Amino acid sequence: MTGTPSAWLRRFAPTPPGTALDLACGSGRNLVWLAGAGWRTTGVDRDAAATAPLREHAEIIDADLENAAWPLAARQFDLVVVCNYLWRPLFDTVKAAVKPGGWLIWETFADGQQTIGRPSRPDFLLRRGELLRVCHDWHVVAYEDLFEDGVNPRFVQRVAAIRPPPAA
């Protein structure tokens, strides 16, 4: 595992821990933190070499989310985390993976990033307000769309949202 877990995730991860999905988990910076906090974790990523060391912490599914079927069938989680990953065709699928009453914590690069570095392709950059629109029918607890200056400057968008319970 490399890297510090997302401050956005650390701020909004609900308690008590339950089941968590870390989508595009990479080398596991968020997944390992969640497992250490008592979450039963599942990680999905296409880089089997990066995820190999994570198998002691979580269920790991090696899958190319952009070129293969959704690997989690009808499974749902108390928390779904997506950091630094964007594949728009999965918006509805990711939301469906959150249990009613569960949380979605999503944080990734936004428009403007192309002016300072990578990623630079529009396919991998959120449009202004896009995550807010994706979660328009959920309870949005927090949302940011901003430029972060500092050691690793970046344009970023974040949402922490709760899926509503089923209609009565």
Describe it:
With 168 residues, the chain is α/β, with parallel strands linked by helices. It has one domain (7-162): Rossmann fold. It is built from five helices and seven strands, in the order αβαβαββαβαββ. It has a seven-stranded mixed sheet. The model has no long low-confidence stretch (mean pLDDT 94).
List keywords for this structure.
168 residues, alpha/beta, Rossmann fold, 5 helices, 7 strands
Please outline the helices and strands.
Elements: H1 7-12, E1 19-23, H2 29-36, E2 40-45, H3 48-51, E3 59-62, E4 77-83, H4 91-96, E5 98-109, H5 130-134, E6 139-148, E7 154-162
Parallel strand pairs: 1-2, 1-4, 2-3, 4-5
Antiparallel strand pairs: 5-7, 6-7
| Large-scale geometry | globular
The CATH class assignment is: Alpha Beta
Oligomerization status of the protein chains: single chain
Known CATH architecture: 3-Layer(aba) Sandwich
Query: Level of helix content?
Result: 10-25%
What's a concise summary of this model?
By secondary structure, the chain is of the alpha/beta class. Helices cover 17% and strands 32% of the residues.
